[in-house]
Amino acid sequence: MCDDKRIAIVGGGPVGLTTALTLSRRGVPCVVYEAAGEIAKEQRGAAFHPPTLEIFQRLGIESSLMKMGLRIPVWQMRDRADGVYAEFDLGTLAEITNFPFRYHLPQHYLSSLLLDTLKDDPNVELRFRSTVTSVKNEDKTAVLTIATADGERIVRSPWVVGSDGAHSKVRKTAGFDFEGFTWKEKFLVTNVEYPLEKLGYTGTAYVSDPENWAVVLKLYDDTKEHLWRIAMPADLDAPDDVLLQAEAVQARLSKTLGTDMEYPVTYSGTYRIHQRVADTFFKGRVTLAGDAAHINNPIGGFGLNGGVHDAFNLANKLADVWLGLSGEEALELYSRQRRTVAVEVVQKNSIRNKQAMEERDPDVRRRNQDAMRALSRDPVKVREFLLDSSMISSVRRAAEIS
User: Fold this and answer.
1) Contacts of 188 by beta carbon, 8 Å cutoff, 6+ apart
2) Which of 173, 207, 313, 353 could form a disulfide with 134 if both were Cys (CB 3.0 to 4.6 A apart)?
3) Phi, psi (5° rounding) for residue 134?
């Protein structure tokens, strides 16, 4: 067994790497264990809210990040048949935040930037192809079992951050519960190379329909000018090889977007969607952040952003403990702050968003849309709505908890 006095971070995605950078900025040493051999480029989170950009500004990477990506100040709510019924302009919040827009950038660009920033950092060691298979609390340390190409290693660390995603081995083996449910459908996710602005779309749009609702957003890509993601519901019982047939994908796109044209599809895939939150984010010497701690459907863009907020909150509290500025109660406070937000804000709002988009009762759907249309014309209500949907309110809510 090896004794490592550094903080162990399990998972080298954006949450784990943000944790590492925050710790390093505070002068705290850490080691990141990542199972893969390189940065993952799967179709994952791609939109950042204002508070997340403020965190990157505080960490000193905002200027590099802003050389990529797309600024999306205006987003829409649409009915599939009737078109736009409400638009919201984040410019309304310009006096509150330096970033009054959504910033569209697939998360692997962020991960690559974080990796470049950390690769020569003396406080951070990056260990790829190192799969943490179990973590257990033991006295005043945590013991990690790690599978590598050279065999199994046992490492004792003073603190562990589990940022290893929805299927977290840290969460499962360290004895956390993961409460919630799984939706009774899959998401069909497509990337199409076509300027949907021609059809009246802003960079983000939520399309309501009982059967063919969708999330439509413009993606940044350094090789393609007009790349859009359309995420749609799919039958859980339908095999992927049927759902992903080119003809089937085109049929769904045409029905959802309301045109008969054939779209150039550059990617299509499916995934399950869940709503779950760990019973606590702190147990013994083990903490959880990001998808390891909470997962939700993607409507509203809360998952990746909430994970970065977790990372920054947790890393600063871990640094305080490490530097002797506070005791372990700081980590219990982290758990209460971020778990409360996960339950009260992320879960509640993402569930509400999905249910509103797929509402089947035409009278209820019409009333909901009329209410949002009226709200969009009321400056006071718009401001409060945008504070909530941009996650500014969620950061404030966490800070209220002491």
Assistant:
1) 231, 232, 233, 234, 243, 244, 249, 252, 268, 269, 270
2) 173
3) -160, 155
Helices (H), 60-189: 62-65, 107-118, 169-173
Name the architecture of domain 2-179+275-400. Answer: 3-Layer(bba) Sandwich (3.50)
The pair of three-digit structure tokens given for residue 342, joined into one six-digit string? 């996960």
Tens digit of each residue's pLDDT (9 = 90 or more) over 299-343 = 888 889 999 999 999 999 999 999 999 999 999 999 999 999 999
Sign of the alpha-carbon dihedral angle for 54, 56, 58, 63: negative
Domain segments of the chain as ranges: 2-179+275-400
SS3 of residue 183 by DSSP: strand
Query: pTM of the entire structure?
Result: 0.95
Looking from the CA of 14 toward its CB, the CA atoms found within 13 Å total 30
What the block records as the tokens of 32 is 């990141």
- Give the pLDDT mean for 90-114: 96
Q: Are strands 124-128 and 30-34 parallel, antiparallel or unpaired?
A: parallel
Burial class (CB in 10 A: 0-12, 13-18, 19+), 75: buried
Q: What pLDDT digit, counting tens, does each position of 335-373 carry?
A: 999 999 999 888 888 888 888 888 999 999 999 999 999
DSSP string, 137-150: EETTEEEEEEEETT
Full DSSP string of 8-58: EEE--SHHHHHHHHHHHHTT--EEEEESSSS---SS---EE-HHHHHHHHH
Q: Residue 139: which region, alpha, beta or left (left: phi > 0; alpha: psi -120 to 50)? A: left
Helix axes 303-322, 392-400, angle to 10 degrees: 30
Express as a percent the part of the chain with pLDDT over 70: 100
In the Cβ-directed half-sphere of 76, how many Cα atoms lie within 13 Å? 22
* Residue in 224, 226, 220, 218 with CA at minimum distance from that of residue 201: 218
